[in-house]
Structure formats: C-alpha cells, structure tokens
Write a structure and sequence with these properties.
4 strands, 57% helix, elongated, Importin subunit alpha
C-alpha cells in the first residue's frame, strides 16, 4: 500500500533543535531510510537536506480515480468511437468464430471478408471479462493487424485494426510489449495525421496504452515525436471525447518519474495547461501534479515552463476537482527548495487558503494544511508570510477540530514552525493557545504523530529559555504532563526517551518545592495558613 512514510531528523552537532520537515516520495524513503523511514547512524537520527519529506501520492496511487486517468484502458464494445462501414451481412459475426478462421480471413484479398475478420478479432478483444489477448497473440494475428494500419485506402480497416491493437496493448506489460515489438508504434504515429477522425482518435488511444506501460515505452514513443502532434489536437474544433483521450495520454506522458519525461515534454505540457474546458483542465493539472512529484529538478522544469501563475488561481476554482488537482500540483512545488517555494508564494498563493481551510470537503482541508506544513518548514520569511496571512489560528483550529488525517498534517505544520521560526514567531504560536490541542494528540495511537508533538513541545520549551516554567505550567494544566509521563512507558524507544528528557529537564519537581508561594505560612496560633492564590501571578508568555 502507499501510506505516508515520515521520519524525524535530528540536527546532529547543533544542539537538540530538530530540522524543518517537509515530505519525501515513498520510494526515496524506502531506498535511503529503510522501511520505517528513519535514517539511523550510531544511534542518532541523521540530518538530511531539505526536502526531508514529501507527501506520497496519497490518493492517486492508492485510490481509483476516474476511468480516464487509468494507465491503460480497454475499449469495450459499447464504447465504439464510430461504427465501421461493414456490410450488414458481416455485422453479426459470432464471437465464437474460430481464431483459425479469423486469421485466414484477415489475410483475404476480399476487402469485405478481411474487414469482417478484423472486426471479429476486435469484438473478441472488446469483451468485458477476460478478453483472449494471449490466444490472439499466439495465433500470429499481430503482424496482420499491424499491416492493416498501412491501408490508407481502407480507413474502416485501419480503424478496426487500431481498435484491436489498442485492446491488446491494454493488457499486461508483456502483451503491451508484443504490440510494440510488432512495430505498430510508428504506424500509430502516422495515423495521428489521418484525415479520418475516428482513425486518428483510435491511434491516440493506442499510444496512450503503450505510454502507460512505463518510462521505457514512454520515452520510445516520445523519441518518435508524439508530443507535438498530440498537443496539436488541443483546439476548440476537436470533440470533447477526443480531447479527453488526448489529455489522458498527456497524463500518461507525465505519470512516470523514474526517469522523468524530457524537459521539452514538460514545457509543452505546461503550455497546454492553459487550455479551457473543465475535463481537459482537470486532466492537464493532474499531469502537472505528476511532473512536480519527481524531485527538485522536475519541479524546476515546471516552474521554468511559466505555468505557476496559471496554477495558483485555480485554487479558488468553482469546481472541486480543479481545486484538488491544483492544490496537489502547487503543494508538490513547495516541497522543493526555499527558492522554488518562494515562486509559489510570490503568486499570492496564501490568499486562497482561508477558503481552502474552511472548505466543506475534509480532503481539501487536509491537503491545504499539508501545503502549509511545507511553508512552515521553510525560512523565517516564509513562516512570517503564513503568520501575516492570518492562517495560524486556522491551522490550530484544524489541529483541534479536524479529522485525524488533517490533525496529523496540522501537527507537522506546528512542529515545523517551532523548528524554522524565530523566537517571536514561536511566541506568537503559543499566544494563539496552540499547546492544549497540541498536547491532546499525545494520546493517539499513531507513534509518528506522538513523536512530532513531543518534538514540537520540546522545541517550544527550549526556545522559551527562562520562561520555560510558564510553558511547563500550561502543559501541565491542559493535561499534557500526565500524557507525557505515560509516554515514558511507550514501546517506541525514541518516544519514551524524549518523554523522559522533557520531564527530567522541565518537570523535575525541584522548582515547585522552592516556590515561596507554595510554602504555607504559620499563624500566631501555630496553625498553617495555606493560600497559594494570594501570590499567584497571571501567566504571561514572553521570551
């Protein structure tokens, strides 16, 4: 499964303050940190350069999206792009016709017999369940179908052959490779220039399935020059169904990131993102989100394409699907360097977040807080931008009231601020009453969240300096101390050590014993007069 993997990085050699945390791709974490996502060196959690974190494609890789965003698609019988002009005597060809008969008739000199045979093969491949792809490949029909693609004098035959090959390419990787090895790809590219729209569209669909097989096939198709003719179809004269197929192929061009697509492809996709039309817009923005999910170099490619000023306003689009795609795309960008993050901030992106943080859809809230957690992991000027935009109280509200996934992101946002921020910025955070909802998360079962909160609390206490006792009182009064004490028995070694350190350094009890206000006075009658409230001052947080 594609869960979110995160770790805590210790800034070894620079005291106890923790590093800013952003999000890292799942595969990168598994490669560099192991299954638990933690880099360990001689017992220390090792500092790594930003971005330490990057959100995994939380929904895209785990959850099914609309069918048009699947990597490969079979063209079912009922979704014919356009019926071929087949004689009525042959339209009722039985799907039970033998493969030998199909193979023999597909090489017939009689155009009608040949067309009906190819159509019969296509119908077998268009069945909803278990199409006999391997049987047809083993029959030796692939070279015959590929040869039919050359028949410019018979567009109906080209269409039926392209449809059959499309469905073969929708199968397993081995089945897709069989189509590629039959030398069909150059002919599909040639059919992109066909005067017959149904033939042209079917070629687009076939290429989409081949590109969706992986980066090797993608790069092969790109090397043959697919991008420019593909993008030429994005114009108002093309029917919407055709356009959606085109943008689905564009998504597949951008989906694989190991290796990433060529720079030229990224630039041209960035230009195509300016196209109008709801479904086209959604698909193209998702394509950009894939491109930005591949590391800083790909992020820079997208930035250099000039598309960021176009993406940011989409955060306030009236359609939730557009908002979601745009939020993921710009969210991926701010997982990059501080300079790349600043490009997004310079587009007035934070002005869109009051609405996103109060959006009725919880998924939007969660992604919005995730975005902000990567801003608070930036430099102090970027942290200040979040404060100046009035977003800290809204993050704290999500910390207290959001669902657990959103609370988790809010915990990261707060903890990151305690790491990246100046003393006055952390002081502002505390003044917004962040500690009680922050401490409430110490009792959750998610060890990762517990450690993030402990790290944040310790950072606040460290930064408070002489005022640490005031922070300690707030933690104790909201029930945080009891939770921290309980965590000394936690099965996670990092958690119980961190809990012990906090209690040992800030809740040892010596300070309480020496507090004059807590020592009872002796009256003339020898009795004690205990009134701790008489000398109690109102707690103020001032570093």
């Amino acid at each position: 499964s594609c869960g979110e993997l995160r770790c805590t990085a210790l800034n070894v050699g620079q005291g106890n303050l923790l590093l800013p945390l952003t999000h890292m791709p799942c595969a990168l974490i598994l490669d560099e940190y192991g299954l638990d996502g933690i880099a360990v060196f001689k017992g220390y959690r090792v500092k790594v350069q930003r971005p330490i974190w990057k959100s995994v494609c939380v929904c895209l890789l785990c959850n099914k999206r609309d069918e048009h965003l699947l990597k490969k698609r079979n063209v079912p019988q009922e979704e014919s792009l356009e019926d071929s002009d087949v004689d009525s005597d042959f339209k009722g060809v039985s799907q039970n016709v033998t493969l030998d008969a199909i193979l023999q008739n597909a090489t017939s000199d009689n155009a009608v017999i040949q067309l009906s045979a190819v159509q019969a093969a296509r119908k077998l491949l268009s069945s909803d369940r278990n199409p006999p792809i391997d049987d047809l490949i083993k029959s030796g029909i692939l070279p015959i179908l590929v040869k039919c693609l050359e028949r410019d004098d018979n567009p109906s035959l080209q269409f039926e052959a392209a449809w059959a090959l499309t469905n073969i390419a929708s199968g397993t990787s081995a089945q897709t490779q069989a189509v590629v090895k039959s030398n069909a790809v150059p002919l599909f590219l040639r059919l992109l220039h066909s005067p017959h729209q149904n033939v042209c569209e079917q070629a687009v669909w076939a290429l989409g399935n081949i590109i969706g097989d992986g980066p090797q096939c993608r790069d092969y198709v790109i090397s043959l020059g697919v991008v420019k003719p593909l993008l030429s179809f994005i114009n108002p004269s093309i029917p919407i169904t055709f356009l959606r197929n085109v943008t689905w192929v564009i998504v597949n061009l951008c989906r694989n990131k190991d290796p990433p697509p060529p720079m030229e492809t990224v630039q041209e996709v960035g230009v195509s993102a300016r196209c109008t039309g709801f479904h086209i817009l959604v698909d193209t923005v998702w394509a950009l989100s894939y491109l930005t999910d591949g590391g800083n170099e790909q992020i820079q490619m997208v930035i250099d394409s000039g598309v960021v000023p176009f993406l940011v306003p989409l955060l306030s689009h009236q359609e939730v699907k557009v908002q979601t795609a745009a939020l993921r795309a710009v969210g991926n960008i701010v997982t990059g360097t501080d300079e790349q993050t600043q490009v997004v901030l310079n587009c007035d992106v934070l002005s869109h977040f009051p609405n996103l943080l109060t959006h009725p859809k919880e998924k939007i809230n969660k992604e919005a807080v995730w975005f902000l957690s990567n801003i608070t992991a930036g430099n102090q000027q970027q942290v200040q931008a979040v404060i100046d935009a009035g977003l800290i109280p809204m993050i704290i509200h999500q910390l207290a009231k959001g669902d657990f996934g959103t609370q988790k992101e809010a915990a990261w946002a707060i903890s990151n601020l305690t790491i990246s921020g100046r003393k006055d910025q952390v002081e502002f955070l505390v003044e917004q009453n962040v500690i009680p909802p922050f401490c409430n998360l110490l009792s959750v079962k998610d060890s990762q969240v517990v450690q993030v909160v402990l790290d944040g609390l310790k950072n606040i206490l460290i930064m408070a300096g002489d005022e640490a006792s005031t922070i300690a009182e707030i933690i104790e009064e909201c029930g945080g101390l009891e939770k921290i004490e309980n965590l000394q028995q936690h099965e996670n070694e990092d958690i119980y050590k961190l809990a012990f350190e906090i209690i040992d350094q800030y809740f040892s009890g010596d300070d309480i014993d020496e507090d004059p206000s807590l020592i009872p006075e002796t009256t003339q009658g020898g009795t004690f007069n205990f009134d701790p409230s008489s000398n109690m001052q109102t707690k103020e947080f001032n570093f």
